[in-house]
Amino acid sequence: MRRPTLFAGSMPRRVLPGKRQLGVLQMLLMAAALMSAVALVWLAQGMRGTQHKIQLPHDAAAAHGFGLQGSSMAARSLEFPLWWHAPFVSQSGLGAEAIMMVESLIATRQMRPDDIYITHSGDAFDHGVLKSFSPATRNMLAHRQHPQQVADEWLNTLFAAQKDTQLQRLADMHDTRKTIAVCHNWFDCWRRAGEMPSDMPGCPCPLSRNRTAFTVARTMFETAGLPAHLADHVKAMDEVWVPTQFNKETFTAAGVDPAKIRVVPEAIDTDVWDPARHSPVNLSRLGLVQATGPTAGPNSTLPAAGMMRG
Questions:
Q1: Percent helix, strand and coil across the chain, each rounded to 5?
Q2: What is the Cα–Cα distance from 97 to 87, expressed in whole angstroms?
Q3: Dihedral angle at the C-alpha atoms of 4, 170, 83, 124, nearest 10 degrees?
């Protein structure tokens, strides 16, 4: 598949060599606040279920903080906006990571808010989690929702009034650009030829083939091997972002083309996770913990302190 460039207009349409891309990544990783901008730097350089609607009062100050009211932005308009599918409003770690990435891309002016759409996808919507978010995060989620809330395949299963409402929302959408879909959720949510689409909220990813030019999976798998059926889902994507070299090696061993794998490390908030502000945890007090994997067995329990010693 041809790899589309992100930038429209007179921007150069060139693909940078892999080593130079890696160099850009290493420089960006020096600043944790810019960590999640790496993925879009790669894209800019290297790329030629029923949904819940979040209804929140508009917080002008918070919205302005994320550029939602036309604040001066350094980023250029994109030829292909991002359509980010993730369990944003759930207790999932994938959702927390997705929020961090999207917020960082906007806050660091790597992207314009108008070039990012989001869809809660892959897990149940948790209103308690929504209440825990900052006003800025809630406003970002409320303002950047993609109008499509139901997969193409499920439209005809809706009641007439629901279907008409969904189609009208799409007709009223002024942005007609095709998107780069980021599937930041579990493997089974991703589209795969010959497989019945998942009916989890916001699935399958992307919700619409017709509105998508390119698909990217953000995922990970913590064991020493990737099961065949999960590898098949990865192969169906145009590109996959994993957090570690370990994941790249295990995905490659499972038959995924290494050319489509990008290592995009995870970031931490150094203001919160500052070793100087906390005391070490005495792991021996935790007792037995569940351990999985080929060396421990599927249902083994090991002392926590012993696990940490290896």
A1: 40, 15, 50
A2: 10
A3: -150
Q: For Cα atoms 166, 164, 145, give the angle at the middle one, nearest 5 degrees.
A: 15
Can you tell me the distance from the alpha carbon of 258 to that of 276, in angstroms, rounded to the nearest whole number? 39
Give pLDDT tens digits for 109-150: 888 999 999 999 999 999 999 999 999 999 999 999 998 888
Token pair listed for 304: 């926590």
Q: How far apart are CA 192 and CA 65, in angstroms?
A: 38
Closest to 110 (Cα-Cα) out of 73, 71, 64, 137: 73
Write the Ramachandran bin of 197: left for phi over 0, alpha for psi from -120 to 50, otherwise beta. beta
Phi, psi of 302, deg, nearest 5: -135, 150
Task: Return d(Cα 244, Cα 29) in angstroms, integer.
Answer: 13
Contact criterion met (CB below 8 Å) for 212 and 178 = yes
pLDDT 10s digits, 256-293: 999 999 999 987 778 888 888 888 888 777 777 655 54
- What six digits make up the tokens of 284? 């021996």
Q: Please give the Cα distance from 110 to 113 (Å, whole number).
A: 10
Task: Single out the residue of 169, 54, 75, 33 nearest to residue 118, CA to CA.
Answer: 54
Query: In sequence order, what E strands does the chain have?
Result: 82-86, 116-120, 179-183, 212-218, 239-242, 261-263, 288-291, 300-303
pLDDT surpassing 80 at residue 36: no
Residues 180, 126, 233: CA angle, nearest 5 degrees: 40
Cis omega (within 30 of 0) for bond into 204 = yes
Phi, psi of 180 (to 5 degrees): -100, 115
Token pair, residue 50, equals 């029923």
Smallest Cα–Cα separation from 85: which of 135, 55, 123, 56? 123
Dihedral sign, CA of 290, 243, 236, 87?
positive
- Rounded to whole angstroms, the Cα distance separating 272 from 269 reads 6
Percent of the chain residues topping a pLDDT of 70: 68
